[in-house]
Amino acid sequence: MKIDVKLGDRSYPVVIEAGLLANAAHWLVPLARGRTMVIVTDSNLRHHRHVLERGLTAAGVATALIELPPGEGTKSWAMLEKLTDDLLDLGVERGDHVIALGGGVIGDLVGFACSILKRGCQFVQIPTSLLAQVDSSVGGKTAINARAGKNLIGAFHQPALVLIDPETLATLPVRELRAGYAEVVKYGLIDDPAFFDWCENHGAALIAGDIDLRTQAIAHSIAAKARIVAEDERETTGKRALLNLGHTFGHALEAETGFSDRLLHGEGVAAGMALAFGYSAARSRCSAEDSARVAAHLRSIGLPDGLSAAGIAASGATLVDHMRHDKKMAAGTLPFLLARGIGQTYVDSAVDLADVAGFLDAQPR
Ligand code: GLY
Questions:
Q1: Catalytic residue, candidates 220, 247, 285, 328
Q2: More confidently predicted of 342 and 324
Q3: Domain 174-361, what fold?
Q4: Domain boundary assignment for the chain
């Protein structure tokens, strides 16, 4: 299946197909133009990399490899410097397409490196984690982390092609799979209540390994993301901001855990979405039933549905203080993604942070 991200002369296809990694050459040969293709990946993904290399070699495409350490620490100035120097040493030109094979860390770093290499070269995303397959590989947000916080240095730089093989998820730890699934649920909660129903009906089987359900969930998520990105590529009209549902609360929880493995990003988003609905219900913006339904589904998947499940004991004031460092803070206010119901998310820029702190203090610990 092919979904087009329609951005004028920067449009690109996202191809989703079980087994695609072995057949990626079909899509990559025209981009190689007879030149060596550089694959950037991490050392945990050698199996996937060998599958990709075998297919490219059989199709007559020469490859070069840059292997980086796995983990969030790779999204750093030091690794950006190493990667750009390595790409230059390999002779990458502006018209070449660098392949980012990996999860969100590899995709974000390679995308950013390609946005600045020779003032911009091409890249292809081949995401291997669920989080990257349903969100970060599409839409052109690229970044590294700074001392002051995550993703603070980056650029919008769209890939030329995204190839998604749901079979790569077979080797993903189940905790990471669940964390990525939070971003799937997000699309239902934003503006697609029928898809939230679908998640309630099929989420558990998807996590358990059903490849058809995984493929359907990825395709549905990417179709939603492609539509939103085409409408608001640079997050200026408020439409793309809807994709941040759960991220402001979630960011505070992640900051409280030091952005460590204690709480994965997707787990923070899950708890954050439950809190966004909980706050919306507590302030009579949406029904208590809808808020309870969101929490129940997340819980049923094994995702945190609030502070206590996320292991957070901090006070409301401490958590709100983390929110003040959010990069979306503008002129002293923080836009919150709240909900009028399932599938009815909206941006509220008049939320009082002291009120949010009071709400958080009232949550069970
Ligand atoms: N991950 C949110 C976005 O791409 O806008």
A1: 247
A2: 342
A3: Dehydroquinate synthase-like, alpha domain (1.20.1090)
A4: 2-171, 174-361
Give the DSSP H/E element, type plus range, for residue 64: strand 63-68
- Ligand 1 atom nearest residue 240's Cα: 5
Q: What Rg do the C-alpha atoms of the chain give, in angstroms?
A: 20
0.70 exceeded by pTM: yes
- Residue 119 is among the residues annotated as catalytic for this protein: yes
pLDDT, tens only, 15-50: 999 999 999 999 999 999 999 999 999 999 999 999
CA distance 285 to 237: 22
Looking at the domain 2-171, which fold is it?
Rossmann fold (3.40.50)
Of 24 and 329, the structure prediction assigns the larger pLDDT to: 24
Contact 132, 104 (CB under 8 A): yes
CA–CA distance, 179 with 270 (Å, rounded to integer): 8
Contacts of 123 (CB under 8 A, 6+ apart): 97, 98, 99, 100, 110, 111, 114, 157, 159, 160
